[in-house]
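Final report, closing paragraph on structural work. Over the funding period we assembled a curated collection of sequence-structure pairs, and we close with a single example.
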Amino acid sequence: MPKRTVLDHVPFRWFAHAALLAVVLTTSSAYSQADTTAQPVSIDGAAPVENAFRLRPSLGIGPGMFAFYGDVGRDHTKYSPLVTRVGFEIRATTPITPWLEAGIYALHGRLGVNERGLERNLNFESRITTGGVRFQYNFLQLLRKDHVVEPFINVGFESVEFLTKTDLFDNQGRSYNYWSDGTIRDIAETAPNATDAVLVERDYTYESDVRESNLDGFGKYLERTWAIPVGVGARMDLGNNLDFRVGATMHFTLTDLVDGVSDNSIENRKGTAGNDRFLYSSFSIGYTIPMARKAQKAKKTPLSTEELDQLAWLGDEDSDGVQDIHDKCPHTPAGVKVDAYGCPLDGDQDGVPDHEDDEPNTALGAPVDEQGVTITDETLLRSYLAYRDSGNVNTVNSRVESFGPMKPVVKTKRVYVVKVGSQVEGITEDLIQKILSLPDVRTVEQGDSTYYVVGSYDAIPEALRRELELRGVGLQPVVMAEENGKLVDVTAEADEARKKLIPPTSAPETSGEAIVRVQLGAFRYPLSRDIFSEIKDLVIIKGDDGLTRYYTGSFKDVNPAAAHKVQMLLKGFNGAFLVAFRDGKRIGMKEAGAKLTGPENLNDKASGTIDRSLIRFRVQVGTFVGNVPMEDMDKMIEMGDIKPIVSADATRYFYGQFKDRKSAEEAKLVIAKQGFGDAFVVGEVNGFIIPAEEAEELMK
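Its predicted structure, as stored:
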């Protein structure tokens, strides 16, 4: 990919904006200084009066949220303008009349949209920098003189620079292929080898430059343009030369390529006519530079000190009949009934005065809102859901995020293990028997490969001695290091340690002990790991016969192995049975100490089922990061039987418990008509969410 030049990057624009800001500030300060030295003006020989209006420069800064309106994510019916990505604004302004303000500003932040649907799946994130001038009108002629909040409208002209990227590959370089079942896989659904596809997850790292990718043949188009911002807002004076502003501005750009998609795009990327635009909603704090004023003579009151004291003691400022010196609730509204201390009456004692209470006869002790109305159970439920989902509102439509919470990474120290086998495809029955004969064997999954390791040694010589023992039973062991669940090649370190290791004088002898395990089942397709999440010592082996077998436990006595099997049956693994191994070979249960023998051949017919009574189908209604929109929350409350599942990154809401997929699909159609167009069916086993297809196979 060709390198970008200095002119293609945001910092170049920031230098231009900063230079313009300095010019305006210098000009504003010059005008202000000239005004403060002006002499009072005499009108028709009357006493001189001081000029009431002065030019006063102001600086402001504050955060805000960008929302994009263009071709990607073009269906904005459920789109909230306050939930996308953060931006920042700096500004310098000065009034040129009492009702008109002029200034310059600069914005910087990111725009982004993730469009997920059956027709197409597009996403982008663009780094945005704007700078320009604008004029603001404050409706001064229409406001009262004692107004607190000052509404305004503004319009301006600005330059916009954008750098747009998209997320096409995961962190392992695998491309995203969106399948019709709602999953994302590393191979296209129509590819000849689609059966080999594995699930991938979006990493939400926007690594691919849209312009450089040239997906629509647009070539090296300019990533900067002009725009016209039009906004509304309100300003409130905080005192001490500070003011608070809140507003929203729509930026109408003169390009249709901010998201890299236009009506000239090809295939399902084709957009609609019309330029892109974006909304910036923000609040900011401003500081007005104070200018020197001529000292004014203090006004004198004609009242004496004694008369002023009498007014302070005997006055009744709010005219409620209680003198100010005794009034515990000053500024009571006119006409409101008060008690002996000047406080408004509260007949039901709910903390809300009668003149503001919409429910004057609330039951004693009942919780109420700000209007004095009793808070019902339904209202409490809404508040609870909003509390659990507190944060920035953002609906997540990606179905691949629905299966299992993110697992935190726990940093552990390095240990040494001995790898005794690995597999990408199936392995032979002979190797399976040798692996399962090792009492401490466990599974480590890394990418598409499964490794079988034994031991956990602090020092590499201990691992090397175990390696020598395992070579004596016909295995090809390799010493490796394990860090945070990942295997690390330590060949050089092992070779150096072997030189100092004293080899044994005789070949290691086999232990002769029987190892009894519980085989949970043998399936013709791998199951979701979530089904086995409560089983910490799970060993998974895929044989060359195409069956995937699941084992748990490692016992030298049949009795505890049998007790473990009973526990597995209670967890729903109806096909669980005991198997025994000795010195790399499968043996009968009678040899292991039991009275009955189990299947003698690992290649026998597949055995293994999940208790069907534990399998259910649900409808995933939606996935939310942050607050659930109130209208969506109302709909889910009306549905009933909604189950939330909270993970580290989002909260997912599921409806119903169906014994067959057909009933769940019918319910999904009804839910989609209520506005949840992205709803889909999933399976559930023992409280764990799995793909609906897998649950359907387990039902067979």
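Confidence is low (pLDDT under 50) at residues 1-12, 17-52, 389-402, 595-606. The two ends are 50 Å apart (CA to CA). We thank the funder for supporting this effort.
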